[in-house]
Amino acid sequence: MKKISKISLSLLLAAVLVIIAACGNKNTTNNANSGAAESAAPSQDAASAAPSGDSDLASLKGKKVALVMQFNTGTFSAQYVEGVKEQVEKFGGKVQVFASDNDLVKMASNLDAAINQGYDGILLDHGQASALEAGAKKAVAKGIKVISFDSDLNVDGVTMLQQDDQKMADLTLEQLAKDTGGKGNIVKVWVAGFAPMERRQISYKAFQAKYPDIKEVAAFGNANNPQVDTQAQMKAILTKYPKPGQITAVWAAWDEFAKGAARAIQEAGRTDIKVYGIDMSDEDLQMIQDPNSPWIASAATDPKDIGRVQVRTLYKMLKGEQVDKTITLESVYVSRDQLPTDKKINTTELAQYVDGWGSSTQNYEDWMKELEAQN
What we know:
Rossmann fold, 2 domains, 6-stranded parallel β-sheet, 12 strands, disordered N terminus
């Protein structure tokens, strides 16, 4: 009995030691694994504090942008397209231009093509709601971001970009009134059916009421081949009113109209008529600088800036940021007496002489600088 008890005690002791050793090893292993896990993964607080900006910006790279234009006539449109392409490429995207040759049916078809081809964003240039509303709604329903410029499109989910058309008209018309002493005969070159033109017409009607001694002796305008058509029609009006003083000035609601009118007046040798326009391009600026040209002033927004702001607004939407339903672009007044007489300049250099030109930072966010740097 005694011998058996000693053996039993020895076995019991051995078993206890084995259990203690096993528990010690288990705790050591668990502690080691726990430490490794804590080292490999950040805490929940650290993870939530980690910046997500890089991943947000990465998602914006390689975006496909469609620019659907009602017309792409003249140097203003060319510089606007240049601004769009420049900003999209800086953001690492690609842009495709769909020109519609001033055909609204074709523009609607181009919009449908852009939707069906799976573009990430669509920029609309001019156009009318009657032609674009259905397509715009379809694009929004598919999650495509849409921004229109100078159109009357009012669709939920579509942001509208526009120039301050009434201000631009006011600037030129008030200067015309000042230069003529509030009296005289004028010609208006304008065309209906375009949202910016309709807004400019509001200011023109107010101008007529304010200055009853300034008489409109002729009014015309054609958006198809506008420069050549205006030149021909202005030539006919000058034949009808051949004497100095019969026409005091021309107010042109578009730079393409101003170019045509100015060329007709200059060819006729009429130095008694001044031209006031709206919009500005390199070609326009050269004409305004020419001391022999009747075109002496224009109110405008830098066309490249228009394109840049439209693209920036699109990328804000692509990033999920809120933007205003309507965005109004800033404009300036440019007259010959502001410009150098010893050299010709282009619109890139215009900022040296006209405050506010070509320096718009509208909708230019800090993260966009980073996105540009990455590309």
